[in-house]
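Lecture 7 notes: from sequence to structure.

We start with a single chain of 310 residues. Read the sequence below before looking at the structure.
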Amino acid sequence: MEFKHVSVLLNETIEKLNIKKDGIYVDCTLGGAGHSSEILKRLSEKGRLIGIDQDTDAINAAKEKLKEYKNVTYVHDNFHNIKNILDKLDIEKVDGILMDLGVSSYQLDKPERGFSYMHDAPLDMRMNKDSNFSAFDVVNGYDENKLYEVIRNYGEEKFAKRIAQFIVNKRNEGDINSTLELVEIIKSAIPAKFRRQGPHPAKRTFQAIRIEVNGELEILNSTIEDGVDKLADSGRMCIITFHSLEDRIVKNKFKELKNPCICPPDIPMCVCGRIPKIEIITRKPVEPSEYEISINPRSRSAKLRVAEKI
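Now the structure, written as tokens:
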């Protein structure tokens, strides 16, 4: 299957990156290389792009798509390691960093990856296929309380407790092996009138398990901080999120980096010595146009936040 991924908020992101033709840029989530391709079009031969992805399918597809460019370095790794990655490449500072979070269209549409609740496949959901921890381990290995916490916290699912109970009860009959097995369990746990409302009944639980498998939220705070430390003055960081949990983390981290002072508010002057690292460029997040949503419904929940190093 061809690696296809429609880059969300493409023009808005490229504009906000404020690309310098001789600059160094990092695409932390290479994916289908849509954003990277547009960055490279704006770079001279002296410019450089570092493309990071933990999915080898994405790396291989990007190499093919960007084969005409000689100023690209491909890194198979988790962007959580951005500081070490750049240090190993002897890159002290970069001019821009892009993170397009979440699962790619390719991963969703390739049934055997196990991300989709619409196709039958083994319970997998690993973005890094070299990882030895998968959705199977979460669904079959976590106790009821831990399952409940994952589904509630990462899926914001109101029926998390019932879903966790139903999963554990079903496990007594044997392992839960496939995505559609799990979907049927989730459906049986949610009262009929609620199954008929809103999104697919398994959507929130699948999101929660995927986040847990890939550690998507727990790495965000430190990754943003490490990335900002590697930005040159006036360098920009663009982050695209797809659900409220991600967006809240990005929003709050940007606020903290803009105003890191921890002094009590009644003290007349700052004594903690913490200085701002960024300016926030997007007072409100940039969201897709109605036209973009009409041609790519998966973009509906996307939000772009941008910060500039000072």
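The two ends are 43 Å apart (CA to CA). Keep this in mind for problem set 3.
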